[in-house]
UniProtKB/TrEMBL annotation:
Residues 153-197 form the LysM domain. InterPro entries: CERK1/LYK3-like, LysM, LysM_dom_sf. GO terms for biological process: innate immune response. It is found in: Cell membrane. The keyword Secreted does not apply. This is Putative LysM domain-containing protein. Pfam families: LysM. It is a single-pass membrane protein. Residues 1-27 form the signal peptide. GO terms for molecular function: transmembrane receptor protein kinase activity.
Amino acid sequence: MDLIQQCSLKVPLHILIFLLQIHFISTYPTPMKCSDTTRICTSFLAFKPQPKHTMALIQSMFDVLPSDITVESNGWDYIFIRKNCSCASGMNKYVSDTTFTVRSNEGFVNELVMDAYDGLAFLPNKTRWARKGSVISLRLFCGCSSGVWNYLVSYVMRDGDSVESLASRFGVSMDSIETVNGIDNPDSVTVGSLYYIPLDSG
Ligand SMILES: *[C@@H]1O[C@H](CO)[C@@H](O)[C@H](O)[C@H]1NC(C)=O
Ligand SMILES: *[C@@H]1O[C@H](CO)[C@@H](O)[C@H](O)[C@H]1NC(C)=O
């Protein structure tokens, strides 16, 4: 009797977890491909801090020094985080390493990472419960320019953003954003997806 009750509780939970994983896999951005695994470049990640994000927390989340953090001007409330970006051998994708320290015992690590990094980090390999104090190795989405651009900024598209608004905000042409990201139709960008904004200078 006990066993039956346990099973009837566990099965739906497992199905739920399975569905959640499928959901994350199918909506999560794919990193930028690369082939030269000796390549290292400077890259930037655009991050919109919430009130809970102190400077110390941001430094820890991204494994950077204060000098690697720039606040966006013009009242956008974003910060740009400078990170070395490299072409990971094996997977042949551009990534940048960091660690995430779990600060609660609630929920899945995947969800905490998703919430903390807002689409800028790869989800960890396995679904596991959060344990306060554990340190998770993570990889961030970054890119190195293979064209005329000096830097690429990793940017997660928000409600209200468009290729046009990003072009004017970052002072680059719509064309170059479309080229770097393989966008055919600038009206069909996806909120929550990761894009790379090419920059001439940082
Ligand atoms: C970034 O890469 C440069 C060039 O390879 C290296 O000199 C520098 O130490 C790296 N910085 C960090 C924080 O790893
Ligand atoms: C996931 O695991 C594989 C194999 O163990 C490893 O190569 C890969 O780097 C891991 N991914 C992340 C994001 O840590």
